[in-house]
Amino acid sequence: MPYSIKHIAQIISASCAVLEEASIVYLLIDSRKIVFPETSLFFALTGPRRDGHSYIHEVYKRGVRNFVVSQKIDTTLYPNANFLLVNDVLKALQTLASHHRSQFHYPVIGITGSNGKTIVKEWLYQLLQGEENIVRSPRSYNSQVGVPLSVWQMQRQHTLGIFEAGISTVGEMEALANIIQPTIGILTNIGEAHSEGFANDEEKLKEKLQLFTHCQQLVYCKDALPTGNNIEALLNPSIQLFSWSKKDIATVQITSETRLLNQTEIFILYQEKSFSIFIPFTDTASIDNAISCICVMLLKGFEIATIQSRLLQLQPVEMRMQLKKGVNNTYILNDSYSNDLSSLSIALDYLKQQSGSANTTVILSDILQAGIADDKLYVMVANELQQRHIHRFIGIGKVISKYHVVFNNIQQTSFYNTTDDFLQQATHHQFSNDYILLKGARVFAFERINHWLEQKVHQTVMEINLSAMVHNVKQYQQKLLPTTKLMAMVKAFSYGSGSVEVARLLQFHKVDYLAVAYADEGVDLRKAGITLPIMVMNVDEAGFDALVDYNLEPEIYSFNIYNSFQQYLFQQGIQQFPIHIKFNTGMNRLGFEVDDVEILAKQLVKQQTFVVKTVFSHLVASESAEHDGFTQHQAILFNTACAVLEQQLPNRFIKHLANSSGIFRHPNLQYNMVRLGIGLYGVDSANGTELHLQPVATLKTTIAQIRTVKANDTVGYNRKGKVLRDSKIATIRIGYADGFNRQLGNGVGKVWLHHQLAPVIGNVCMDMVMIDVTDIVNVQEGDEVEVFGKHLPIQQVAVWCNTIAYEVMTTISQRVKRVYIEE
Ligand SMILES: *Cc1c(COP(=O)(O)O)cnc(C)c1O
């Protein structure tokens, strides 16, 4: 249902005339995600650090002609374009979505709560898709921007909408309520998540309840409310309340539950009838989410037998996109959980973001999506692929094969009727160096393709949570002035996390600079298509060719390296090469002495070979209060050096001093740029509490064998592990060759499994470690063990090893497979 741009101008009360008629189908907020430029409307959203107006030029160049802006634009620069001028671009986006929502009169479920929103939404979709044609939020699109984009997908052919709303501070829910306009509300729970923006739980509850102001019915869990809160008093009295509880009288009362091996039987009292239902999960969160769904089905009048049979088919929701290394240097993005057009488009964006300039392959099954005729659907799919320049397309299924001609514009295509056909005919050598997206409906069992493409390695992996990394960057950015630039330190294989993958993410999120330790690290990044400027900290003559060939910018730290690089460039006839000048202000490692700044300035002034891009120094102890005096002393020396260069050099340069802990402990020392290192990875080296960082790396492995060892026997080399009682000992698949420090042996270190810590027993071996699991029930071979991560902070492991988190991270060996996760 396209809107004319004139109509949109009216809806959002834009204050300038529309010159060119246009019809709008897509709302665009991200210049990197243009797919259908002619029918897209770009909203120039402004945030604290990014101003959408500065992307107008880029977006226009790529064919977009319609814009919503809040600043006057020189329209003569953009022929044939419409600029709708409003006071607040975000409000305009929300107003448009809210208007769109009002056009439809089918039921809409609105979900909020601290946890479980996405799962409840996805499960309701699984449970109700038999009778309804459902439109729902893609993934976790639940923010001030995500909600309008979700609701914009509503169309006439749908019969039910399911949208989630997430807020982080007071005042946000009203806007979301006006956009979603739910007729049925679900409150999952009020927990710890996102508490920072609220004074207390009651304030948070009140804010969340705003979503339900105009609901007819509300499903909620009584037990999850903050104590002493009476929800009825806070809500519009006309709302029909549908409560559930495990402790109290409620519409749906859970009288007891029995956990079985892999399911849970819950006993329900509802409308004076007792019955039980099996839920195919055993963890509390899943049970609670399933009960919310059962309530909605009861509310909608489903028979108990139907509820039971559908519930047993519930599938776990994989909310994360996982990028894994596959055979022949490929990467596999397996996103086979959802199988519809909007999730395809999100997965394709992610694939392109990760692949950089590498080739891309999409393997797609028949799409089982109601509501669009097949011929139209596959034309739309082909369009999505072609717009993103996907190199190779493999279609699997009878229907998609029938429409093979619509994919003719893609470089390389092939089609198979079944997954088996594909697996019989395909060979590994057809797949090398490319990024492969797997997206298949459940019946096509694409996990078999995934398995076939995956590189077989031992089961120790380091998971890198890219979403957590983005979160951490934002935490630090909040401490900076909007104009302060950010250099991300990706040296040492990005502190062990994988340089290329991390650099791609940071490039996508528009950090300003990258820095590596050695030239060859920079070369790897360039080969992977990283175009950001890259500073190389430790250069020597052997690396000069690489610097020039790959456009890498050296740190110049001494007169010796200055002279030899200058001479090298001179011989090559190169001028104006970008360099970074480093001063020693107390570290006594690399850098010019501040006393030499006058001599250095004289040399720089009379030459053309170098351009000074930045001037910097490094803080010795920015994390410790004890040395704050010394830190300020370093800053004074640094200022002295900068002042001389600023006075004498013809061009302006960027100044930078602070590392991660400097950023928030010394906000007065941010100059024009800061260098963020360990903080990216979720480690606060000052051990403070004011930053809400999320751990990025999780190292995990599995149990290979479990045995009982009798009292007085020993475990491991040199009989070091003395067993004092009859014990259950598990061997895990990690050793010092993987980076599991030998100091963790003999009870010093512990690992985390089944919500408990288990001590290491005996010496750490090269490839294996034994742990004592006597006190942990139900441990089985194959169980997962966390070495560090979310539950066992890396800082704790560092303490056990007598070292710092930096060393623990960077010593995880390259044979440990890295898996990248996007939440
Ligand atoms: C590694 C490094 C940083 C980053 O330090 P963190 O403490 O990890 O933030 C900054 N500057 C220089 C010169 C470095 O070598």
Automatic annotation (TrEMBL):
What positions does UniProt annotate as the active site of this protein? K491, Y717
- Answer yes or no on keyword Isomerase: yes
Show the stretches that span the lipid bilayer: none
Q: Which CDD domains match?
A: PLPDE_III_AR (cd00430)
Q: Name one GO molecular function term.
A: ligase activity
The residues listed in the UniProt record as binding substrate, with positions renumbered to this chain, are R589, M766
Is the Electron transport keyword given for this protein? no
Question: Start and end of every Alanine racemase C-terminal domain?
Answer: 696-821
N6-(pyridoxal phosphate)lysine: modified positions: K491
Pfam family membership, one: Ala_racemase_N
- List the keywords (alphabetical): ATP-binding, Cell cycle, Cell division, Cell shape, Cell wall biogenesis/degradation, Cytoplasm, Isomerase, Ligase, Nucleotide-binding, Peptidoglycan synthesis, Pyridoxal phosphate
Output the InterPro entries linked to this UniProt entry.
Ala_racemase (IPR000821), Ala_racemase/Decarboxylase_C (IPR009006), Ala_racemase_C (IPR011079), Ala_racemase_N (IPR001608), Mur-like_cat_sf (IPR036565), Mur_ligase_C_dom_sf (IPR036615), Mur_ligase_cen (IPR013221), MurCDEF_CellWall_CoF430Synth (IPR051046)
In which pathway is this protein known to take part?
Answer: Amino-acid biosynthesis; D-alanine biosynthesis; D-alanine from L-alanine: step 1/1
- EC number, as in UniProt: 5.1.1.1
Domain of life of the organism in this record?
Answer: Bacteria
Which SUPFAM superfamilies does UniProt cross-reference here? Alanine racemase C-terminal domain-like, MurD-like peptide ligases, catalytic domain, MurD-like peptide ligases, peptide-binding domain, MurE/MurF N-terminal domain, PLP-binding barrel
Q: Which reaction does it catalyse?
A: L-alanine = D-alanine
**EC class (word):** isomerase
Question: Required cofactors, per record?
Answer: pyridoxal 5'-phosphate
- Described function: Catalyzes the interconversion of L-alanine and D-alanine. May also act on other amino acids.
* Family, per entry: Belongs to the alanine racemase family.
Under what name is this protein listed? Alanine racemase
In its UniProt entry, the species of origin is given as Parasediminibacterium paludis
